Amino acid sequence: MSHDRRLNGWASIKCASGGIPEGRNELGKALLNSECDWLFMVDADMGFEPMALDQLLSVADAKERPIVGGLCFAQREAFDDGSNGFRCVPRPTIFDWVEHDDGHWRFTGRQHFPVNQLIKSAATGGAFILIHRSVFEKIKDDQGETWFDRVRGTDGSLIGEDISFFVRCQALDIPLFIHTGIRTTHLKQLWLGENDFWQSFYAPPATDEVDVIVPVLHRPQNIEPLMRSLRASTGLATAWFVVEVGDVEVADEVDNLIGYPHNREFREGGTTTQGGIKSLWTHAKDRAQVKFPHPQNQNPG
Questions:
Q1: What is the pLDDT of residues 188-200, one digit of tens each?
Q2: Could you tell me which of 178, 132, 148 has the C-alpha nearest to residue 21?
Q3: Where are the domains of the chain?
Q4: pLDDT value of residue 107
């Protein structure tokens, strides 16, 4: 963190994977034995920005929002990669209490989330979270110092210590909020392969001028999204929109949709009705500054 003005004290708990519930419980005891109002709990494998704690405190409230977490991700093995490994994907640790097809209720992760917003959630992980001391006091009064002791779900399966904590919170109507603008990273291992290389590859910026030929066959509505994409890709492109001879109505619509200063040319005589898209492409190719080796039998669609 960028400063320690927010830190009244700190406790470092080291434990093996099987001792995590006891380790987190020790943090709860340390908080109640101190004069601190808030416990900022962060795992050793988490990355976060210098002002993250200040951001959490700025949206937290002892009564209305006594638990606030940042945007965290867990690693999930999505499917077999065919090479004795798995394709791994990130999933936000934002959970809702959902009834499943088998009739059991479970904390179920969301597939998506709103960006830069404070949202309510039923549960999250314990890797990066701010908790008011009143939460620990309420659970202690109700169940003793068992804040992170693991419990069983409605189907009898043993739940992780962090989710077990929120089972207790939910029973006592203690709300949880997550701010998706307070971002973190999570150190993980995964199987790397060619797909990961191509997904991480950034194409170099365009340096050559290029002509883009766009035959328009009665679908000018596709021009606007195409131009947005083209402008985002390069500023060195000249777009040639070609319509059928005599189709003034479509030509006028193309003029309106292009959205920036441009020239309009007409080809005199003849017809492209029989030639279709190939004839449109050939005409534009002859007018373009760059010669194309093969016609592209595609139109925006």
A1: 998 998 988 888 8
A2: 148
A3: 17-196, 210-287
A4: 92
Q: Which helix (H) or strand (E) holds 68?
A: strand 67-71
Q: How far apart are CA 122 and CA 98, in angstroms?
A: 10
Distance CA 223, CA 214 (A): 9
Instruction: Report how far residue 123's alpha carbon sits from residue 107's, in angstroms, rounded to the nearest whole number.
Output: 7
The DSSP call for residue 123 is B
Spatial distance between the Cα atoms of 140 and 169, rounded to a whole number of angstroms:
11
Long-range contacts of 189-196 (CB under 8 A, 24+ apart): 190/75, 190/88, 191/81, 191/83, 191/85, 191/86, 191/87, 191/88, 193/81, 193/83, 195/87
pLDDT < 50: residue spans in the chain:
1-2, 266-276, 289-301
Distance CA 300, CA 228 (A): 13
Give the span between the Cα atoms of 95 and 173, in whole angstroms: 16
> Distance between terminal CA atoms of the chain?
50
Beta bridge partners of residue 212, listed in sequence order: 239
| CA gap 95, 169 in Å, rounded | 14
Which residues lie closer than 8 Å to 185 by C-beta, 6 or more apart? 46, 47, 48
Distance between CA atoms of residues 244 and 275, nearest Å: 10
116-148 pLDDT, tens digit per residue, is 999 999 999 999 999 999 999 999 999 999 999
Residues in a beta bridge with 106: 98
pLDDT at 248: 74
Q: Which fold has domain 17-196?
A: Spore Coat Polysaccharide Biosynthesis Protein SpsA; Chain A (3.90.550)
Find, among 35, 38, 109, 44, the residue nearest to 78 by Cα. Answer: 109
| Angle in degrees, 0-180, between the axes of helices 161-171 and 20-32, rounded to the nearest 10 | 50
Q: Give the pLDDT of residue 188.
A: 93
Distance CA 129, CA 40 (A): 6
